[in-house]
Design goal:
The complex is a heterodimer. Chain A is built from 11 helices and 9 strands. Chain A is an alpha+beta fold. In chain A, strand 6 and strand 7 (105-106) form a beta hairpin. Chain B has a domain at 23-37 and 68-141. Chain B has helices at 12-16, 23-49, 56-66, 69-95, 114-117, 119-141. Classes of the chains: A alpha+beta, B mainly alpha.
């Protein structure tokens, strides 16, 4: 067994059925090198506090469920090693800037509502029928894909909204996650551009409320860099305002679906030799 | 949402607390505070200059008060706020139009964010602000 160390976890508890306000409780836990905050929470639940609630799933930084405010910084509990925090006392709170459901469970509804507002899907003004009933594929070069690829890695963990100082005082601000997705789709050469999303991103609580604190990019566990996407979105909005923006999708349809199926058949694996 | 459910909103604490975040978060705070300070000064300045309608004597008395050492310090703080706000504003103007941030790239650990990429510009503007503050201070206090 590797060397163990006793660490005190101060956890903010709140049960809507019995508590009128949140309170703090402390738990001493024996931790070892490599142990994550999520593993420590499991240990606390098993040995000391069976009613402790939090949300988690994949345990490997993919699902984005276990975002928490650990030592005053938003991070994924499954990716944060306890001993890397270099502190004998570790505070854990639910993500700020979200309503608190119970203990460490935040209500991420505001995140998803804002995400929906920016129309996070391909819009083709010049080709609505094809958008609704696709009959083929659209050409995209690797360079065109690179223009937005970084922003497709968002796992919707909500850490960026918890870190953003503007969201702290303006709850209606769309926030880094939604604005990043607005840019991700606007920059896609299959999309007709940012002009389709002006009603949400060019509004009072839209892109211009961001004043580049950079906290979102600092907190993002996937390297999505929302601060970059938002600044590029502002540039696209300015270009659009002066008539230099993209007015229609920049790619033509290639290969009807039937042809694609034929191509795929050409690369089909050989027939099975074992039943 | 139940009545006792905490909103979780940080409010002004979200502005002020920048402990574990990067340097730019402190600049965000400084930009907002200096902006509020300059706005407050503009209001006070209008009230102050309106004293001219009370006659020459009142005006001379007020000007004598503003020449006193405490007001010199306040004047310098005002100057420093304006310089910081202007220099940081130039950085924000450039950055918010997408300059100095680099291009989007595949996120490969350790991640290089745009915040770090434009840090040379950040440092340059802050050094310029510091120089201007030092020059202004020397001409104000040691004319």
């Amino acid at each position: 067994m590797p060397d163990e160390k006793i660490i005190t976890f101060r956890i903010r508890r709140f049960d809507p059925e019995s508590d009128s306000a949140p309170h703090w409780e402390s738990y001493a836990v024996s931790v070892f090198e490599g142990m994550t905050v999520l593993e420590a929470l499991h240990k606390i639940k098993e040995e000391q506090a069976p009613t402790l609630a939090w949300r988690s799933s994949c345990r490997m930084g993919v699902c984005g469920s276990c975002g928490m405010f650990v030592n005053q910084f938003p991070q994924l509990a499954c990716q944060t090693q306890v001993l890397h925090l270099r502190s004998d006392t570790i505070s854990i709170e639910p993500l700020p800037n979200y309503p608190n459901v119970k203990d460490l469970v935040p209500d991420l509804q505001p995140l998803f509502e804002k995400h929906t507002q920016v129309k996070p899907f391909i819009i083709r003004l010049d080709d609505v029928k094809e958008m609704e009933n696709p009959s083929g594929e659209f050409l995209q070069t690797p360079e065109e894909r690179e223009a937005f690829s970084q922003f497709t890695y968002c796992i919707k963990c909500g850490l960026c909204l918890a870190a953003c100082p503007t969201v702290a005082t303006d709850p209606r601000f769309l926030g880094p996650q939604a604005l990043t997705q607005a840019y991700r789709y606007s920059a896609d050469n299959r999309d007709s551009g940012v002009s389709n999303r002006l009603d949400s991103v060019d509004a009072f609580h839209g892109a211009y409320q961001c004043h580049m604190a950079g906290a979102c990019s600092h907190a993002c566990p996937k390297g999505v860099d929302p601060a970059l996407a938002i600044q590029l979105l502002k540039r696209a909005l300015v270009l659009d305002h002066f008539g230099f923006g993209k007015k229609e999708s920049q790619t033509a349809k290639v290969l009807p679906l039937a042809d694609v199926v034929k191509e795929l058949e050409a690369f089909a694996p050989p027939p099975r030799t074992v039943k | 949402m139940k009545n006792n459910q905490p909103t979780g909103r940080l409010g002004l604490r979200g502005w002020v607390y920048a402990g574990k975040y990067s340097f730019e978060r402190y600049l965000y705070l400084g930009h907002r505070l200096s902006g509020l300070g300059l706005t407050a000064y503009m209001v006070l300045h209008i009230i102050e200059t309106a004293n001219r309608i009370r006659g020459e004597h009142a005006w001379t008395q007020l000007m004598a008060l503003f020449a006193s050492p405490p007001f010199k310090v306040i004047e310098y703080l005002l100057f420093a706020m304006a310089v910081f706000h202007a220099m940081n504003g130039i950085r924000l103007f450039l950055v918010e139009l997408g300059f100095f941030l680099g291009k989007p790239q595949e996120p490969i650990y350790p991640y290089q964010s745009s915040v770090k990429k434009h840090r040379p510009l950040t440092y340059l503007m802050m050094i310029l602000a510091g120089l201007l503050m030092a020059l202004g201070g020397s001409s104000l206090f040691f004319p």
